[in-house]
Design a protein that fits this description.
With about 325 residues, this protein is an alpha/beta fold. The protein is about 45% helix and about 15% strand.
Length: about 325
């Protein structure tokens, strides 16, 4: 665990969404160190100390101003979504975002907060995502942005954007996971009673959130549970389909429609998550970690870590086992 708390700056200005403020506060503004979570220092930064109005009669009173020097030394700057996506953002807020990004501080925006980053010019020439219902508006009003149509969250050059509502929770937990490891993110997720792990590439919404029948729902749930118990095995879509009593093609279609991701991608996500836990919690040799998580070899596990986490299993263990 870090000796110093990770410093998070929440930018507060009129028109921000109360839900996103609540998500940011729930992830980084609650002391969970007694449960083994990292220490955070959440600063609510406004153009002044006046209460910031939000929809529903809620207000947020900033505890600090927009000190550009201090923002440039924070560990993360987060922008909530906004109610009016085309309303001009106060120039001090835009200047603060530009200063933080120039200093190399990661900047993240939830939902319609992408429009704020766009006004600051931080998304020009970069990939970005927002709520699926707003992607067309973002592309039309800011044509220099490479708008990703349906991902949960994306990152480009230290700038993070997330889709709507629940995807903001996914991004916040992902940023905790990157900074502190999978176990820290899982601890916070358990406290919030939310899913600890959804990748940014997962679709924003699924075609069939509730399967057509209880039998089908039970079959898919049983398959996922059985797969998690047998991750060490070289599972295929045909294996999973056989457990569900479906053809591979029908199973893949139902699985994707229900979960928003393919069976192959879901398996890879679970293998990576399992490997992260073993690397954080145990001193098992790398080949054994790879075997238990179904990668087959250390080389394959290393390739997937590099592609997904931009690090190696050894560096991941070095950073997060010592921290935990």
């Amino acid at each position: 665990m870090q000796q110093l708390p990770q410093r998070i700056a929440l930018l507060a200005f009129p028109g921000i969404r109360a839900f996103d403020v609540a998500v940011i506060t729930e992830v980084w503004g609650v002391d969970r160190t007694a449960r083994g979570a990292p220490r955070f220092e959440l600063r609510r930064c406004g153009t002044d100390r006046a209460p910031v109005p939000m929809r529903g009669g809620i207000t947020l009173t900033p505890d600090q101003g927009l000190d550009l020097e201090q923002l440039s030394t924070d560990d993360l700057v987060v922008v909530p979504g906004v109610e009016d996506h085309l309303a001009p953002v106060p120039e001090p807020v835009l200047a603060a975002l530009r200063a933080a990004h120039r200093a190399g501080v990661p900047v993240a925006a939830l939902c319609g907060g992408a429009f704020v980053l766009a006004q600051a010019g931080l998304l020009d020439g970069r990939r970005a995502v927002t709520h699926w219902n707003l992607t067309g508006l973002l592309a039309r009003t800011h044509p220099r942005i490479d708008v990703v149509p349906d991902a949960l969250f994306v990152e480009d050059a230290g700038v993070w954007t997330a889709a709507g509502v629940a995807a903001g929770i996914d991004l916040c937990l992902h940023l905790v996971r990157r900074a502190h490891g999978a176990e820290a993110a899982a601890t916070i997720a358990r406290s919030m009673v939310t899913a600890p792990f959804r990748t940014g590439t997962q679709a924003q919404f699924v075609e069939q959130p509730t399967p057509c029948s209880d039998r089908e729902a039970d079959a898919l749930a049983d398959v996922r549970e059985q797969a998690l118990r047998r991750l060490a095995e070289p599972l295929t879509v045909a294996d999973l389909a056989g457990w569900a009593g479906m053809s591979p093609r029908s199973f893949a279609r139902h699985f994707t429609a229900t979960t928003g991701t393919t069976p192959v991608q879901w398996l890879l996500d679970q293998r990576i998550a399992a490997a992260q836990k073993l690397l954080e919690r145990t001193g098992l040799p790398m080949p054994e970690v790879a075997r238990r998580c179904g990668f087959g070899s250390e080389v394959t596990m290393r390739q997937h870590f590099a592609a997904r986490l931009a690090t190696s299993p050894r560096d991941y263990r070095r950073a997060f086992r010592a921290a935990g």
